[in-house]
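Problem 12. The chain below contains 124 residues. Write out its predicted structure in token notation.
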Amino acid sequence: MKNFGFVKMSRKFMTSEMWEENRVFSKAEAWIDLLFMAAHDETTNIVAGFEVPLRRGELVASDSYLMRRWRWSRNKVRLFLKTLELQERIDCLDHETANQAGRIVFILNYDHYQQEGFTGGSRV
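Solution.
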């Protein structure tokens, strides 16, 4: 089996029984979760009472939100995000409401991987 190409999945998968079962996420599941949470169009999210504008490929999440969602420690969340930054998979951006709403995470190459009809490539 060749190790390249892509699989498109509906965002509805995030609300399925399999995704919402009570368990600790693996690093692979946490990465997939970030991809699912990223905005697919420009939007504004309301987080902790603050409007946070997001561009395509961005999401906003606090450490505490990701800790609850993935059932990880704060240190593990921070280390994972730092590792993804070093691997050039994400950039974490400051936002004026970052302390209240969380950090903005930008998925690098989001457009490349999420464009309509794209099926080629080899980067994960």
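Discussion. The beta strands are 43-47, 50-54, 58-61, 90-93, 103-107. Students who got a different answer should revisit the alignment rule from Section 12.3.
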